[in-house]
Amino acid sequence: MDATHSDIAIVGAGMAGLACATQLAAAGRDVRVFDKGRGPGGRMAARRADVAGETVRFDHGAQYFTAREPAFREAVAAWEAQGVVARWPAAQTSSSDAAWVGVPGMNGPIKAMADTVAQAGREVLWNTRIEAVRREKDRWRLGSGKAVYTADTVLIAIPAEQTRDLLAACAPAYAAIAAEVTSEPCWAVMVAFANALPISRDASRDSAAPISWAARNSSKPERGGGETWVLHASPQRSRELIDTPREEVGPILLADFFDQMQTKPVIPIHIAAHRWLYARPASIKGDPARYDRQAGLGIAGDYLHSPRVEGAWVSGAALATIVLGKAQS
Ligand SMILES: Cc1cc2nc3c(=O)[nH]c(=O)nc-3n(C[C@H](O)[C@H](O)[C@H](O)COP(=O)(O)OP(=O)(O)OC[C@H]3O[C@@H](n4cnc5c(N)ncnc54)[C@H](O)[C@@H]3O)c2cc1C
Fewer CB atoms inside 10 Å of the end CB: C or N, the chain? Predict the structure, then answer.
């Protein structure tokens, strides 16, 4: 048996890739998942920081999610029973639409899904960036540094712009679909204070302001530490600062935040910034996942459904359903 070969290779272990992988693994398919990240999360990442001798978890990507489609509601109920998601009332905007967060960090359900794949005897390889995909005789060849993997079927579950680049040479039709999408960037700032800020709301959104989202990260369950906040700059403010060094961006956006909240500036005890180049795609219409059975090639991701956690799950689950032959592509 060739240890570098699997029937199915999935590139991307975010919500879309793992929604797909868990269903394929549960159906007994030989699937292997690759992700360039050091650990589970993707855009549902959680970053640990040592703040005043305590470990704090910041959600610097997705902040919370809602569940509207029945199949996704079922998945969320199972995660709640497992203890990897919990409600976060601060972001709830209507009585029927609960706001959910991962626990102990936003990547809780991503980690749980990766564990499920591993428990089914399938591999999820972290720190493995797939740099090139090409068709070779009767199989796909995936290159990562010096390592080479092969698969009969390859499923790409990464942001649209990266899908476009990875498939440009080997699958121009799917690269062209991904090329229709443009994503907005987002600068995220993670900040901790010695004392609670005099701000009563735990979550504020204002799409017209430089800081379009601000959340008291420490009001989420199990984040640890004292007073912590996550600030997201609007797409416009993020573009203005796109090439500004990250050490400078944190203080600039923190000043924007205090200004907006009409609060006296306070010196933080920890501050870090992260730039998401492809935070939110303008999703395209049509099927939530695409699959060419003859070529053994498929694509999934939030950009094919809606730019949200639920959209990514729906897309990944749809791709698994098509691959398993339960629905038409
Ligand atoms: C700042 C920010 C705020 C957000 N806020 C919310 C929110 O409040 N609510 C909500 O519902 N959604 C929110 N979202 C959107 C939500 O996070 C995404 O829609 C969803 O997580 C996308 O999942 P995905 O699997 O499609 O992609 P991703 O999560 O991006 O997963 C793709 C994975 O592929 C990996 N990868 C990429 N290229 C390669 C490669 N060449 N080789 C190997 N691996 C690769 C990446 O490491 C990543 O883990 C937010 C996103 C951001 C960035």
Answer: N
